[in-house]
Amino acid sequence: MNIVHYFLQHHQEILELTLEHLWLVGISTLLAVAIGIPLGIFSAHRPGWNRPILGSANIIQTIPSLALFGFLLPVPWIGARADRLAILALTLYALLPVIRNTYTGIRGVDRSVLEAGRGMGLTDRQLLFQVELPLATSVILSGVRVAVVVSVGLATIAAAIGAGGLGEFIFRGLAMVNNDLILAGAIPAAVLALSADFALGGLERWLRPR
Which residue has the higher pLDDT, 161 or 75? Predict the structure, then answer.
């Protein structure tokens, strides 16, 4: 019952940090989508570039989050603000599922459908926007879904560099050995991740070609 009382007594602070958390995840996911989808399309149409693009995104995934924050601290303009640094790091981590699923979705379009489109006189640009992307949307969205869920979890680490978010409760609770504080950060973060997964999963199933 202690955690219930803590939530009731500190609901305003929990709400503020939850909104900060959502802001970090939302901005970084939008940037990852804006960068990752064009890269996935490019690598699908230029197979020779697939290995270096996906390889680079894979290498980023192997770097521990705190180490990546440390690497980015000396970067001009980025390292001057904790929120900028956190958003850049989260964007880099979110790139791999977006790029990989975009590549898979585009490459998975039936070749006969593309040939039929070309036979109708569609240009490469028209094929991309009228055939490939609509058919690959559910696969791409699946990658975005993974990116969002991963970002919600990783964003808790951003509190270690003063970027805010629900991780502040977790680090404060670890320092004070206070389970209520840890749960005040962990429970809303878990709810956010599950909610995003459920909502995007439903949208993905709705957009899946029938």
Answer: 161
- The DSSP symbol for 165 reads S
Class of residue 4 by CB neighbours under 10 A (exposed 0-12, middle 13-18, buried 19+):
exposed
The predicted structure's pLDDT at residue 158: 86
Reading the block at residue 155, the tokens are 């964003």
Q: How many CA atoms lie within 13 A of 11 on its CB side?
A: 4
- Measured CA to CA, the distance from residue 194 to residue 159 in angstroms comes to 21
Residue from 140, 147, 141 nearest 32 by CA? 147
CA-based radius of gyration for the chain: 20
Mean model confidence pLDDT for the chain: 88
Question: CA nearest 74: which of 56, 88, 94?
Answer: 88
SS (H, E, C) 72-93: HCCCCCCCCCHHHHHHHHHHHH
Indicate if the pLDDT at residue 83 is higher than 90: no
pTM of the model: 0.89
CB burial class (10 A; 0-12, 13-18, 19+) of residue 171?
A: middle
Cα first-last separation, the chain = 48
Query: What is the rounded CA–CA span in Å between residue 67 and residue 81?
Result: 17
